[in-house]
């Protein structure tokens, strides 16, 4: 089997899942904070800490992938 065909078989034709970023609200807040405080990024450390805790919690709990709904592609 050619490598290109194997890739298509495994990844393009396989079952697809929705991907939702974890802690997206905190991610948006921390990015906004970094943009507003380009020379004082330490002022965003509390948000960064909350974000890290949120991500670590999501890793421990596990966020299940959900199959795409028909017609959602």
What would your notes on this structure say?
The protein has 73 residues and is mostly helical. The chain has a domain at 21-64. It has 3 helices and 2 strands; from the N terminus they run αβααβ. It has helices spanning 3-12, 24-36, 45-61; strands at 17-18, 66-67. Strands 1-2 form a two-stranded antiparallel sheet. Helix 2 packs antiparallel against helix 3 (45-61). The longest helix has 17 residues, at 45-61. The radius of gyration is 18 Å and the shape is elongated. It starts with a helix and ends in a 6-residue tail after the last strand. The mean pLDDT is 77.
What is the percentage of strand-forming residues? Answer: 5-15%
* Helix coverage percent: 40-55%
Mean pLDDT over all positions: 77
Listing every helix as H and every strand as E from the N terminus to the C terminus, the arrangement reads HEHHE
Number of helices: 3
Radius of gyration of CA atoms, rounded to a whole number: 18 Å
Strand neighbour order, sheet with most strands: 1-2
First and last CA, distance = 27 Å
Biggest pleated sheet: 2 strands, antiparallel
How many beta strands in the DSSP annotation?
2
The general outline is elongated
Helix and strand composition category = mainly alpha
Low-confidence stretches: none
